[in-house]
Amino acid sequence: MIEVAIFCDPQNAQKAGELLYEEDKDLYVFNYTQKEQTISLIMPYKPSSYIWKRKLHPIFDMNMPEGYLFELLKNQLSKEFGRLTDYLLFSFLAPNMYGRLTYKSEFAEKEFKYLDLDFVIKNDSEDTFAKLVDSFLERNAVSGVQPKTLALLREKESLPFKEYIVKTWGAEYPQLALNEYYCLQAVKRSGVPVASVALSQNNRFLIVERFNFNPDTNRFWGFEEVVVLLGKNKDEKYNGSYEQIARTIYNATTNQETAMANLFKIIVMNYLLKNGDAHLKNFGVLYTNNPKKEIKLAPAYDIISTVAYVYRDKPALTMFGKKLWFGKKYLIRFGKEFCLLTVADAQKYYDECVNALKQTTDELESYVKTNPEFESIGSRMLDAWKFSLQNLDKTHKELPDEIIRNWN
User: Fold this and answer.
1) How, if at all, do strands 115-116 and 148-154 pair?
2) What pTM was estimated for this model as a whole?
3) How many CA atoms lie within 13 A of 338 on its CB side?
4) How many domains does the chain divide into?
């Protein structure tokens, strides 16, 4: 049994319910034990059970490791317990998850020692990353397939530590840290809040400050991805549309005008930057402990130019029923019909995105000229971005052959 509590503030965690696994039926069962509690926006209090067959409830599944971290944890737990189930993995990680929800399970809570942020920035080697993973493996309830790890880092001795996600890259996706950094800078220039990020000294790490803690109130925000709000699990993250995302964000948020304007910009930027991995787990909402009071669109995160690696990549989700790189006309139409913007506002926000990409293209071009190690990936990004800027009014299936041929 896993106890689930609502972590109202640093001194007060109130038990909300219990998560059980009926192995013979392969059922995940959550029961509230206290009224007037809400563990998820799609799971308000009710006296009967919330039952999920063969999969964890989306609010729990949201943080399950994938890819690199999953393989590490799978090897460790399979060796010790013989076989790995989602319930075992979640039970193992649960006591060390820190957010609006906290947990107790058969596994003990571990005490973690923070590391120095400046040390990680200046020593971005494979050894340092291995040390981070080893130090914080039991805390790694974080999704995504690329090599990454949660870490507790302190900027200055006088300041409290913060939780960060440290991302690196391997041979399959070289220079991924710089790729994501420049993409997020472009989105930020469009006027959209983005996750706070920093590059390490040799650009091996992208260090992302988690945005689930509100320093103004000293409390954790609730955070839920769109995949959760749609009642889906991580293996369904590519099963959906940008229209679904817009409807979900509109129905969930309390500041709809701001939320829809920013969502429109994020989607436009993903199209202009040629990010073919903007799926249902890459959009989310933040909310206060009383969800009825404030629910807002989460900052933009996990945005890269995927065509630099997957040359003929397409959008992760459909728009107007198709996976095409739509031009201005269709994106403005999307803003009007699904983000409920006026045509004038959609045009204005679109232009702001285009200007943001132009400025970032100039910045990246200057960087590539003086940093030869980034020339290959940076040049591919620049080619893709310039193609977007030169073909704003056109819809296309993929990048043209003449661009891709130059990359080989």
Assistant:
1) parallel
2) 0.95
3) 20
4) 1
